[in-house]
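Z., the sequence and structure:
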Amino acid sequence: MDLNQIRSVVTLLSLACFGAIVWWAYQRARNFDEAAALPFADEQPGSQGASNE
């Protein structure tokens, strides 16, 4: 196997991994609504953050 064949195999494997990730993300069973709302969630009671008291 020469270097160009190895590069071709790595490119094809990368494309297959990318396709698998896209397929996984767009399945109907996935529900990212809760994760999308996390930045807008209120902080937990009693959490002070990074205060140095």
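The radius of gyration is 22 Å. The chain has a mean pLDDT of 83.

Let me know what you think.
H.
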